[in-house]
Design a protein that fits this description.
This protein is α+β, with helices and mostly antiparallel strands. Helices cover 36% and strands 24% of the residues. It has 13 helices and 16 strands. It has a five-stranded antiparallel sheet with strand order 14-13-12-15-16. The two termini are 34 Å apart. The mean pLDDT is 94.
Amino acid sequence: MNVVLLYGGRSGEHDISIISCSAVARMVGANHSVKLISIDRDGKWYLQDDSVLENLKKNPDAKLEINADPKNAVSVIPGGKSEGAFTAGGKAIPADVVFPVLHGTNGEDGTVQGLLEMAMVPYVGCGVFSSAATMDKIQTKILWEHAGLPVVPYICLTRADINDGKRYDSLVDSAISSMGFPLFVKPCSAGSSDGASKACNAKELSVALMEAFLWDNKVLIEKAIDAREIECSVTGNSVTADFDKPSTLLQAYGPGEIVPTHTFYDYDAKYNDPDGAALKIPALLDEEKLNYIRETAKKAYRTVDASGLSRVDFFIDKKTGEIYLNEINTIPGFTSISMFPKMCESEGLGFTALLDKLFDEAICRYSARENLRTER
């Protein structure tokens, strides 16, 4: 099978994408032919020489880079399909399946997914709607609330609210009076905790909001819960699951528990500090709670029409034991310490077998879509 891996991208998570894709590229089965396409910080696409992949596999310390050689600039052809969707240097790049190992904006938010739909190639992960909806933390909460799923109390502020001083002040006052301190402030559509911070008083809240609005035009204020952080991996297709195609059936793995050594599980704890958190798989919960989290993760996945893979994150209030959904990551980290592959591995699905499962589900989803009528 001809596999194309996309990495980099115009995102605050550009560097994490490179680390994730380095791990993925090493673990793709030898029965597949792999091509690497990098996306620089300006959004330009470049085909990488085969020697880059060879060096990556030989050298355990190597990681991918962005080699922006103009002669290898990639063009994407709408309707090109697997044999002609991508070209570089006047030659087609065969693509039986594409894995966009892209985190955050311009990669995980439905933009690249829409491009791949137009190019008519199978790709790993959620479709346009579910990618866009889950990238926006507010829209995700609205969908989950409508489905009767438990979410952390919140208030949303927008750039328009800032432009209306009275409304802005009213919303901030409402957040303080209804939820109290401490509060978490997060950009609605950023990942890896970019722009997120904890506020313990009005001054810190003001600073946190200013920081968050540097990352997004919509910002979430959430009640800060003294919580245990639980995660659950899910694979399969919530819309076209078929018992004759095992890769499409919904399956939950884990859950696992993150025990951060930082104030909260921030960017540093996730990616820079090897001792930033302890990972416990399975989470230290009784079987009843473990099953509840697995089933709730699948319900959350179905509610947003997810497909391919996602990591569903939970909070458990340390005081009350109440369980809340936190967020869903449709292209979770694939680094050597990432929870998603670790939870799958804990249930017997190794990294290479996981990738094969994702490739197969992507092709099944593409076939199901192609079988639909587009004209009378």
